[in-house]
């Protein structure tokens, strides 16, 4: 338990450190309100004041709802380093949330909002109150240990409980806001009912099953089910029950307390029945009337952005579950992969010679922004036209002499309409046409003619609408706007006066034909799931689009044909459709429009009152990391056996922006009067100091001195310290990391009986470069499609027994190549070579490196384990080592399921066959081995602790002094997968 607790605390700290990387060159400010603090770049003061007002508005409402008020103010960080509309929240080391200043765009689950920043803050603050809440016996650990991870009972809930509650809170049926009432989530859940709802074991842990958002989509409907069947009070009652669990992962008690059911498994069965009633009638009607189509892809997940070329070829971004996403083309019935892309790439224009697309790309200090690319069809090669464009969507207009771009450009929460010219392979003369005064969203520009740009717009508190911008009149005018109807995207149709729209009209996300002159709107698709991203081919008369099914988004095609807005369906559905049409006479009734048999109101919090009053911060000052760097919790460790009795204390801390991140374990071995200490400190994610001093003990034997029988006779004192600087350069599909610094290693072996010592002291100055472009695909069993290369150059100073000193240079090259064979099957090749001059420290192929949170594994890493030879032997030590290996890695089973209502599950089970050959000196004979490995992905604690197990058997072909019989070697490896 001691080791487990320490590892959890330090792993979490390390993962946050690796993920967050805020720029130290920005002028960071902090403002404080009554319930929250906001830290932000000075250029984002307007957004910070809004965020503070919004948080201070919703936090007391959420506290009233969940009967819990945090002891301290919530820390909020505003970041403009990502182009993705998102955020996250955590209760430790203190209540803290990071919000990315970006607006959602395209057909997505985030499109139904009133004011985006308000909705995002409401969602994340719900997490804060929910995860921070504790009561009764579960609160006692926090009084003793502070904000220790084990003092947050709700953190150990399955993700669907946490995300479902926050999504339930954000949803307002009265305002048509939030995912819980959106046509997108209805599309997701309707399709789930049609294909078969997922069991609890698929939802309670992280799996690769579609939908990716199942914790949100299943989660929010679960809370709506609770309200519908057990009343609004059942939800805070459920939270009250989970907040009092002293023992994590117990789920049946809260279910019984809140709903009087027999347990969570039984409650889940009731929930699935409720979902069937909610959507089955609509599924039946829409199945009978679905548009017929021909599939282009069948992988599901996130195929996107279909775009017809002039010759009728269909270009799109293809998803590969076993490899990278690619720009692909469907031509003459065959699909060809053209160029690797990001999965979120968007094709914006295709002509006879080029395909233009935008995709996220590194931009500055750990920031991401869309860049513009062009693929040359004849050369078969893509190149970047311009980086850091900020373009969320774009379209080109071709005239005889030039190609002109129209794009929606993002700057935080502000979007602008811009134009630019494509001249000699460069994008030039960018000009801003329109910038809204508020957090107005813009998307999908489309040239109507040389002087008019059509696009979609979402004003605050209104649905998405179709608008046009006149370049001559420099004005923006509404073309189409309907109450309770979103017009998400616009695409080119058969003529400039006939365009294709993506809309949730009548509650279904489908494609529509809109005639600009006649102002008439007719459906193009009817789907069980949904349809978006339409592309029309003048060459073939085909309509290609994204089709949503139980597998996700695929590309399909059909004849372009306008459908009748009203068609026959079953009488019961028809009556409901008529009823809906009567209540909304301005809308054309779509088939399958039926009423829900259930009723739920939602939380309906007030998220707008802050806009109606002046909200000034109580304090405003420069950001000070010292205000938040102190430890918020502590834990203890204790170990005792015949050789030692050691007690220790575990501390860690970090400031709000993660500029300073530290952890330590300090203790005392009372039997041997020795102090133990380990510490780590990282500054600005670029400088790291590490120190570790620990002891290993060897008991005296019965044949030795009587005074040391079953007591420590040999004490090995190991002291490691390092000071490192590290920097990572990110590219589109790879990264390069340089690490340089010094490592100080000292090991002393003391014989308590003879009072003698042996010691070695090695100081190393080194530089390590690691290049990585390997891809871990969704269903991959290994990295694939790339390589990892590490090159080290080092200088050693070695001192033995405090005597003579020696010096020597060392170089290391470690190349790992991953070759995709078919599907997830992978051939992994490795070539390791090194050389240490006489006077440097030697290499050891029979020992495993010791790498912990307080020890680095790059500089002076001379233990290079050779499979089949686990025991250190003189024959495996040398100065010119090499290791060559080949692994064939293959899947055995994709389980991706847990045991219902139990905190344990399985992910992937895979195997490997390998052959490995190594030598500590290249002029000597090699030591060879072959073997087999079994890899098991375990899910413990509802994905709180994903564990990778590796069980292996290696058969050595050569003998060593420590293994003269060449016996098979069995080994078990345990890893933590973040």
Q: Could you explain the architecture of this structure?
A:
This protein is α+β, with helices and mostly antiparallel strands and 978 residues long. A 16-stranded antiparallel beta sheet has the order 32-33-34-35-36-37-38-39-40-41-42-45-46-47-48-49. Strands 4-5-3-2-1-31 form a six-stranded mixed beta sheet, covered by helices on one side. Strands 6, 7, 28, 29 and 30 form a five-stranded mixed beta sheet that branches. It is 17% helix and 43% strand. α2 (45-66) packs across α3, α3 (116-132) crosses α5 and α5 (159-170) crosses α8 (214-230). Residues 1-18 and 567-594 have low confidence and may be disordered. Among the domains are: 26-287 and 601-612, Neutral Protease, domain 2 (Orthogonal Bundle); 292-562, TolB, C-terminal domain (Neuraminidase); 882-978, no CATH class. A hairpin with a 4-residue loop joins β47 and β48.
List keywords for this structure.
single chain, 978 residues, Neutral Protease, domain 2, Neuraminidase, 16-stranded antiparallel beta sheet, 6-stranded mixed beta sheet, 49 strands
Short description:
The chain is an alpha+beta fold. The protein is built from twelve helices and 49 strands.
């Amino acid at each position: 338990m001691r080791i487990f607790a320490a590892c959890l605390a330090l792993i979490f700290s390390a993962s946050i450190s690796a993920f967050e990387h805020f720029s130290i060159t920005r002028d960071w400010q902090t403002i404080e309100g009554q319930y929250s603090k906001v830290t932000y770049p000075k250029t984002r003061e307007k957004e910070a004041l809004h965020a503070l007002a919004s948080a201070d508005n919703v936090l007391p409402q959420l506290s009233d709802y969940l009967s819990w008020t945090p002891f301290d103010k919530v820390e909020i960080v505003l970041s403009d380093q990502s182009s993705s509309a998102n955020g996250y929240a955590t209760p430790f080391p203190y209540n803290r949330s990071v919000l990315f200043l970006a607006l959602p765009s395209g057909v997505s689950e985030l499109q139904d909002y009133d004011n985006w920043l308000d909705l995002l803050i409401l969602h994340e603050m719900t997490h804060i109150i929910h995860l921070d809440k504790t009561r009764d016996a579960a609160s006692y650990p926090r009084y003793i240990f502070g904000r220790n991870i084990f003092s947050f009972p709700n953190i150990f809930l399955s993700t669907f409980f946490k995300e479902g509650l926050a999504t339930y809170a954000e949803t307002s049926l009265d305002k048509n806001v939030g995912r819980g009432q959106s046509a997108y989530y209805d599309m997701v859940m309707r399709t789930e009912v049609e294909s078969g709802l997922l069991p609890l074991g698929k939802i309670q842990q992280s799996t690769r099953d579609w939908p990716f958002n199942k914790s949100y989509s299943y989660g929010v409907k679960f809370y709506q089910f609770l309200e519908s069947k057990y009343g609004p009070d059942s939800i805070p009652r459920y939270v009250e029950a989970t907040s009092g669990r002293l023992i994590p992962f117990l789920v049946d008690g809260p279910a019984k307390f809140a709903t009087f059911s027999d347990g969570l498994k039984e409650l889940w069965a009731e929930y699935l029945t409720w979902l069937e009633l909610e959507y089955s009638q609509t599924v039946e009607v829409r199945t009978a009337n679905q548009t017929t189509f021909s599939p282009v892809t069948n992988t599901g997940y996130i195929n996107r952005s279909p775009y017809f070329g002039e010759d009728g070829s269909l270009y799109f971004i293809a998803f590969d579950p076993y490899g990278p996403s690619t720009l692909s083309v469907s031509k003459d019935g065959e699909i060809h992969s053209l160029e690797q892309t990001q999965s979120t790439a968007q094709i914006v224009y295709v002509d006879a010679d080029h395909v233009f697309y935008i995709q996220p790309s590194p931009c500055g200090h750990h920031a991401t922004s869309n860049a513009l690319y062009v693929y040359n069809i004849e050369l078969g090669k893509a190149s970047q036209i311009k980086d850091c464009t900020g373009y969320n969507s774009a379209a080109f207009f071709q005239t005889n002499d030039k190609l002109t771009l129209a794009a929606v450009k993002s700057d935080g929460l502000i979007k602008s309409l811009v134009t630019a010219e494509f001249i000699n392979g460069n994008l030039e003369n960018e000009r801003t046409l329109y910038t809204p005064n508020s957090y107005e969203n813009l998307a999908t520009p489309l040239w109507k003619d040389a002087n008019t740009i059509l696009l979609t717009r979402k004003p605050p508190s209104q649905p998405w609408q179709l608008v046009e911008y006149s370049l001559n009149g420099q004005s923006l005018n509404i073309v189409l706007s309907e109450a309770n109807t979103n017009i998400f995207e616009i695409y080119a149709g058969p003529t400039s006066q006939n365009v294709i729209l993506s809309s949730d009209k009548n509650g279904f996300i489908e494609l529509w034909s809109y005639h600009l002159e006649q102002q008439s709107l007719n459906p193009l698709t009817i789907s069980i799931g949904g349809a978006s991203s339409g592309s029309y081919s003048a060459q073939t008369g085909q309509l290609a689009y994204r089709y949503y099914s139980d597998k996700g988004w695929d590309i399909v095609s059909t004849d372009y044909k306008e459908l009748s807005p009203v068609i026959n369906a079953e009488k019961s559905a028809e009556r409901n459709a008529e009823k809906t049409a009567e209540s909304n006479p301005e809308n054309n009734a779509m088939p399958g429009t039926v009423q829900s048999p259930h009723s739920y109101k939602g939380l309906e919090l007030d998220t707008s009152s802050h806009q109606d009053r002046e909200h000034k911060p109580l304090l405003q000052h420069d950001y000070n990391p010292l205000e938040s760097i102190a430890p918020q919790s502590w834990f203890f460790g204790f170990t005792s056996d015949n050789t030692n009795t050691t007690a220790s204390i575990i501390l860690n801390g970090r400031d709000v922006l993660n500029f300073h991140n530290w952890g330590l374990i300090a203790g005392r071995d009372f039997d041997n009067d020795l102090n133990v200490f380990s510490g780590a400190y990282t500054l600005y994610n670029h400088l790291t100091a590490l120190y570790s001093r620990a002891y290993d003990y060897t008991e005296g034997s019965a044949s030795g001195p009587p005074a040391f029988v079953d007591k420590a006779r040999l004490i090995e004192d190991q002291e490691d310290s390092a000071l490192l600087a590290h920097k990572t350069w990110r590219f589109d599909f790879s990264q390069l990391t340089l690490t340089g610094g010094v490592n100080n290693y000292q090991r002393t072996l003391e014989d308590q009986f003879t009072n003698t010592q042996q010691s070695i002291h090695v100081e190393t100055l080194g530089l390590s470069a690691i290049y990585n472009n390997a891809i871990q695909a969704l269903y991959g069993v290994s990295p694939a499609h790339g390589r990892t290369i590490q090159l080290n150059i080092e200088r050693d100073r070695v001192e033995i027994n405090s005597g003579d000193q020696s010096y020597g240079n060392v170089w290391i090259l470690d190349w790992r190549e991953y070759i995709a064979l078919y599907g997830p099957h992978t051939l992994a090749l490795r070539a390791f070579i090194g050389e240490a001059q006489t006077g440097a420290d030697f290499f050891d192929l029979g020992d495993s490196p010791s790498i912990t949170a307080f020890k680095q594994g790059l500089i002076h890493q001379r233990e290079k384990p050779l499979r089949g030879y686990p025991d250190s032997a003189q024959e495996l030590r040398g100065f010119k080592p090499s290791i060559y290996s080949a692994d064939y890695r293959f899947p055995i089973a994709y389980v991706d399921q847990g045991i219902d209502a139990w905190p344990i599950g399985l992910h992937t089970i895979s195997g490997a066959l390998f052959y490995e050959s190594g030598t500590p000196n290249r002029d000597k004979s090699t030591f060879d081995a072959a073997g087999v490995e079994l890899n098991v992905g375990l899910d413990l604690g509802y994905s709180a602790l994903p564990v990778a197990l590796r069980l292996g058997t290696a058969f050595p072909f050569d003998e060593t002094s420590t293994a003269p019989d060449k016996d098979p070697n069995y080994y078990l490896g345990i890893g933590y997968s973040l």
